[in-house]
Amino acid sequence: MSPRRDPSRSYGLTPWARSWLDVLELRAPDVVAAAHARRVTKARSYFRDRHVHRLTITPARVTASVQGSQLDPFDVTLSMRAIDPPTVAALLVSRDAGADLVGLTRGEQPRILGELLLPTESADIDSDCTCPDDTLRCIHVLAVSFEVAAEIDRNPTTLLTVMGTDLAELVGEVHAATVPDEQSDSSATDPGPAPTVDYYGTSAMLPPLPSPPRMNPLTELDAGKLRAALRASGVPPTDLAEAVDDLGALYDVLLPE
């Protein structure tokens, strides 16, 4: 039995998802307009009829199988030219846009971050399919691309994985880019230990500073109030658990070992 068509399924509703599809050059130069229209229409029907199976998104790589016109499904692979996280972090800091990463936890798609993450040309995305169609983007590649766009619509952090990074890595790189290099020429400028001052005239040795145990602030917060705060910030109810996980990843990077 063929899967039931779901006309409500959609993709490319958000800026990042639309930009992702634009870069795939759906109107490739070797495809005439009529053939292109038929190919896109068929790919849309595959998307809505859920012909794409086993969609797997890993850093800079997407794989899936698509049930086409033959008995056996076709295997599709998309390989992306991965971004360089330190470079993206440095550019975010230089443009005073480090807070864009926090916006991701609220389901936002910040413009500056998107400009630094999204592929800019068709050559940034290499596609391969086991079907006999040798056009640049066959029906099955387009159907998988629509599925990826739908995932980006649902969760913007998907784009980070697609382009070869994740939120924790970018947060760490931004933090490193904003911390001054304390090691540069420290030997030439180090004045040595500060002289001891006996403020109280007792010559008593002060006790060492306390060393509190490492903690995760999320465990100290009221779960109900945290979810209410996230909802008030615009996080959809279905994404609350994922938003809490993203906050946990941020704390893991920011808190010292």
What's a quick, concise take on this entry?
Helices cover 44% and strands 10% of the residues.
How would you sum up this structure, described in words?
This protein is 44% helix and 10% strand. The protein has 257 residues and is α+β, with helices and mostly antiparallel strands. Strands 1-2-3-4 form a four-stranded antiparallel β-sheet. Strand 1 and strand 2 (61-66) form a beta hairpin. Residues 181-188 have low confidence and may be disordered.
Strand and helix map with partners:
Layout: H1 15-23, H2 33-48, E1 52-58, E2 61-66, E3 74-80, H3 85-94, H4 100-104, H5 111-117, E4 125-129, H6 139-154, H7 157-162, H8 167-178, H9 186-189, H10 217-220, H11 223-232, H12 240-254
Query: Portion of residues in helices?
Result: 40-55%
The beta-strand count equals 4
Q: Structural class given helices, strands, pairing?
A: alpha+beta
Proportion of residues in β-strands: 5-15%
Radius of gyration: 25 Å
Q: Separation of termini?
A: 55 Å
Please report the number of helical segments: 12
Order of helices and strands: HHEEEHHHEHHHHHHH
| Average of per-residue pLDDT values | 81
